[in-house]
Amino acid sequence: MSLAPHQLELLSPARTAEIGREAVLHGADAVYIGGPAFGARTNAENSVSDIAGLVEFAHRYGSRIMVTLNTILHDSELDAAQKLVQAYYDAGVDALIVQDMALLELDLPPIQLHASTQCDIRTVEKAKFLSQAGFSQIVLARELTLQQIAAMRAAVAPEIALEFFIHGALCVAFSGNCYISHAHSGRSANRGSCSQDCRLPYTLEDNQGRVVAFDKHLLSMKDNDQSANLRALVDAGIRSFKIEGRYKDMSYVKNITAHYRTLLDEILEERPELASASHGKCSFSFTPEPDKTFNRSATDYFVTGRKEDIGAFDAPTHVGLPLGTVTRLGPDWFEIDADEALANGDGLTWMNKRTVCGVQADVVKQVGAVWRVTPNQKIAELAGLKVGTRISRNRDHAWEQALLKKSADRRITVDMLFSETAQGFLLQLNDESGVRVAVEVAHEKTPAQNADSAGDALRANLCKLGTTIFAARDVGIVWSQPLFVPASLANQMRRDAIAQLEAARLKALPRWTRTPAVEPPVPYPEKSLSYLANVYNAAARRFYTKHGVELIAAAYESHEEDGEVSVMVTKHCLRFSFNLCPKQAKGVQGVQGQVKAEPMTLVNGDERMTLKFDCKPCEMHVVSKMKKHIFNSPPPSVVEIPLTFHKQRPDAAR
Predict the structure, then answer these.
(1) Main-chain phi, psi angles of 593, to 5 degrees
(2) Which fold would CATH assign to domain 319-404?
(3) Lesser CB count within 10 Å: N end or C end of the chain?
(4) In this structure, what are the phi and psi dihedrals at residue 611, rounded to the nearest 5 degrees?
(5) How far apart are CA 378 and CA 567, in angstroms?
(6) Which InterPro entries does the entry link to (predicted)?
(7) How far apart are CA 13 and CA 61, in angstroms?
C-alpha cells in the first residue's frame, strides 16, 4: 500500500533520531533519515538501533519513517547494502529512498521503495516507467512546473504517490547530473560526498573573453519556498510535501516543520475531502517564521515558470531579516535605530561591496530610542560599518533559545464513553483514526452523595491525559442515576484503556509493502544510456537490460570518461540571468538574430569550465574534464575491486 489519493503527507528531514522525534512532535507525517551507510549525506548517519527507536516513537502517531539509501553502489557494496536493507526492515522502517536500480534486482524483504530525486524524474515517460518498475512513491525533479507535475499525475497510476520538495536548499543541477565535485576533488555527489563547488565564486566570460560578471556565486541558488503554491501543488497532484535539510539543526526542523504543518492544516480545514497522512493535532509555543532560520532568501524556482531572480549570486549565506540602520559609532560600540528589540548573542550582518559581513552582539542595551551594541570584535575591524549602514539580523538569539526548549505538543483526539453494566462499569475509547478499545470492571454501584457534581468529577478524572499522547474530545456518561465512582477506579480504568488503545493503534498500523513491478517488464523510455544514467554496477545494468536498454555506458565515477564532458546539467541558465538569451531578444527591434547562445566560460582560480547552452529544452551544460590524478585512481567503493563495463551486451556464448 501507499499514500491514499486523498492523503497529504508532510515529510521532514532528520540529521539525528532526536531531531526526527521533534519533527514528529512538530507535525511531520513522515521523516526521512540516513542510516550508517549509502545515504547521500555522509555526515548525517545514524545507527540502525537509533532508527528503530525513532520508528517506535513515530508509529505512535501513525507517522512513517523513511531511510535514505540513495547513493549509487559499487559491485563490492551490494551485499552490504542488501544486509542493511534487511536490518531496516527488521527495525520497522516503512520505506527506503533509493537511486540505484540495482536494488530492484536484489533479493530484498518487501520494504517499500521510493525513487529518489537523484533519479532525475523530469519527464512524463520517466515518471510513468518508475511507477511501473516497483516504486510506490516517486520524488519529482525540483525544476518542474505545475503543468508538468499535473501531466505526470495524469500519466501515473493513482496509487503511486508523487513527492515534491517544498522548502530548503536547491541543488543547481538536475539531481544526479552533477559531477563537478568528483571531477575536481574526487568527491562524488552521487555517493554522498559533494564538495559544493556550486557555492564558490566564479567569473563569467563571454566567447571573446570579456567579463560579464566578476567574482559572483553564479551557480548558487536561492532557497526553495513553496509556501504560496501549496494549494496549486495539491491540485496538480502532489501528495507528499518534502522539506530539504538532513544537514540542518534542530531549530530549522522545528521551525520549518511547524510552518508547513500550519499551512497544510489550513488546507485540510478548507477541503474536508482531504486528510492528513498521520494522526494528532499540534500546538506550538512559538510562531513559525521561516525567514529566521538559515536561508539564502527565497524562490519558488520553476514551479510557476522561469524567473530571472532565482540565483543567490551575491552571497550563498544567510543575510537575515532587515533590522535597522546604524546611527552612531563609538570606541567599542555602535548604535542601531532598530525596528525590533535586540538581545545578547544576536547575529548581525551588513553588506560591504559584494561581501556579507557579520558580527555577534555580545552586549546590547536600549539607549533612548536606539539600541547600543557592543560586538565581539573591535569596531575598527568591522569593514564597511558606518553611519547609515543597513543592518540585518541572521540570528535572533531569544527566538532560538525558545526553540531549544519544549516547543510543541501533539495530541490524538479520543472520544470516551463511560457506562454502567450489570456487574460494574465500562469505559470505551474511540480515537480519531477509528481505533476502539474497552475496559470493563466489576464494581459495586452506589448512588452519589452529591448527584449534581458526580458527572463533572468523573469527567475530570477521565480527562487526565496529560502524560499521554491523547486529548479527550467528547466524554459521555450513560448511567441510570449519578453513581459514586472512586477517583482511584476511574484513574485505573483510564490508564488501562489508554494502554490498550496504544497497543491497538500499533496493531492497526499498516505495514507499507512494496508495489509490485508490472509484468512483463515495461520498456525503458530510451534504448541507450550515457554516463548520466549513473549505472555503477552489474545489477543495475541487468535492470536496464531487462527493460530493453541496448547500450549502457558506465557511471562517471567508474573513470571511463577521460575527455571533456558535461559535469553539470542544469535548468539554470546564466545567459538568461544576464539578459543574453536569444529567446529574450526575440521581438526586440534591432536585436533579434544578433543574440546567439554561444559558449561562455566560468572561471574560479585555475579552474575554467565551458558553458554550453541547449536552447530547445532551456538547459545549460557545464563542461569540464576529470583531473588526471582522479581519473587514474580506483573508482570509489567501500572495497576497491576492478569493475568491468560493457557498452554492448556481452555475448552469452563467451
Answers:
(1) 90, -20
(2) Thrombin, subunit H (2.40.10)
(3) C
(4) -105, 125
(5) 44
(6) Pept_U32_collagenase (IPR020988), Peptidase_U32 (IPR001539), RNA/ubiquinone_mod_enzymes (IPR051454)
(7) 17
